[in-house]
Recover the amino acids of this structure.
C-alpha cells in the first residue's frame, strides 16, 4: 500500500506542493485536517460526543479526542474529508449539515518509536447535531476504541478550570468478540489529546450555539 501524500503549505498558508505523510511529520510541514464534534440534545440538556483513541495509535494512544477527525490527503477539500464521520463512526451525513465553528493552527511534537515528529496542522473545526444514541454508531475498530458523551456545559466548565473531573457515559469496543460494553467513568482534561485548553473551550462554546 503506497504512503499517503498531503498538500503542504508555508507559514502564511500558501500551497507549496505535496509530500508523503512520513516527510510531513518528520520535517514539520504545514498541512490541513478536518475536525468534527457531534452533539446530541436530550431532555437533560445538550451532550457532546468524543472518541477514545485505540491503544495502537502512534500518537496519543488511548486518549480522548474529537468525535471524528482526519488529515486531508493531496487534492482533497474539507468537503471530501467529511467522510471521516462515516469511516470512523458509521454516520453518513451531508456536508451541508455541518456548521463551521472556526479554523485553528496547531503545532505538536513528540516521538514515535523513538523517532521525533513535528505535527503542524491547519484545522477546520465543524460541529453537527445528531440524534443517534451511542449504540447506533459503528466504530472503526482500527481507529476508535470507544465513543463517549458528557454534558456539554459540564465539559466547558471543566476545561475552564472548574471541576477536576466529570462523569461520562460510553461504549467500549472489544475487538476479540466484536461486542460493546457500556461504561460510566469519571473523565479529566488531562486524559484528552494534549491540545491547548483554549481549543476545547472555543469548540464547546461554539457547540452551545448550534
Amino acid at each position: 500500500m503506497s504512503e499517503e501524500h498531503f498538500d503542504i503549505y508555508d507559514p502564511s498558508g500558501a500551497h507549496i506542493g505535496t509530500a508523503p505523510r512520513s516527510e510531513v511529520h518528520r520535517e514539520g510541514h504545514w498541512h490541513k485536517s478536518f475536525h468534527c464534534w457531534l452533539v446530541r440534545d436530550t431532555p437533560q440538556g445538550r451532550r457532546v460526543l468524543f472518541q477514545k483513541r485505540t491503544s495502537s495509535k502512534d500518537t496519543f494512544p488511548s486518549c480522548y479526542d474529537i468525535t471524528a477527525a482526519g488529515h486531508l490527503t493531496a487534492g482533497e477539500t474539507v468537503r471530501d474529508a467529511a467522510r471521516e464521520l462515516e469511516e470512523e463512526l458509521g454516520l453518513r451525513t451531508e456536508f451541508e449539515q455541518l456548521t463551521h465553528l472556526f479554523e485553528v493552527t496547531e503545532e505538536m511534537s513528540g516521538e514515535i518509536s523513538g523517532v521525533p515528529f513535528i505535527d503542524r496542522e491547519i484545522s477546520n473545526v465543524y460541529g453537527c447535531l445528531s440524534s443517534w444514541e451511542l449504540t447506533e454508531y459503528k466504530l472503526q475498530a482500527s481507529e476508535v476504541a470507544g465513543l463517549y458523551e458528557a454534558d456539554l456545559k459540564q465539559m466547558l466548565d471543566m476545561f475552564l478550570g472548574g471541576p477536576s473531573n466529570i462523569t461520562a457515559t460510553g461504549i467500549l469496543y472489544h475487538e476479540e468478540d466484536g461486542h460493546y460494553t457500556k461504561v460510566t467513568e469519571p473523565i479529566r482534561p488531562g486524559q484528552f489529546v494534549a491540545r491547548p485548553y483554549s481549543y476545547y473551550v472555543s469548540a464547546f462554546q461554539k457547540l452551545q450555539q448550534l
